[in-house]
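Suppose a colleague, Dr. K., hands you the sequence of a protein chain of 59 amino acids and asks what its three-dimensional shape might be. Before reaching for any lab equipment, you can write down a predicted structure in token form. Begin with the sequence itself:
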Amino acid sequence: MGQIKVFGIREFLHPIRVKVSDIVHECVMDAFQYPKEKRAHRFIYIEEDSFFYFDTRTE
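The predicted structure, expressed as tokens, is then:
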């Protein structure tokens, strides 16, 4: 069974991880007929200073 990996900046992703997990799992259950008890998500948090962005990027 597959595992969903979600990457993101800790400051933004950590506070909403439960909601994101719920939404992702609903989509996986709908698209692939996964059972409700087979939730497998991993959140990988990255510090903001680990990213390099182009100059015109907005938040």
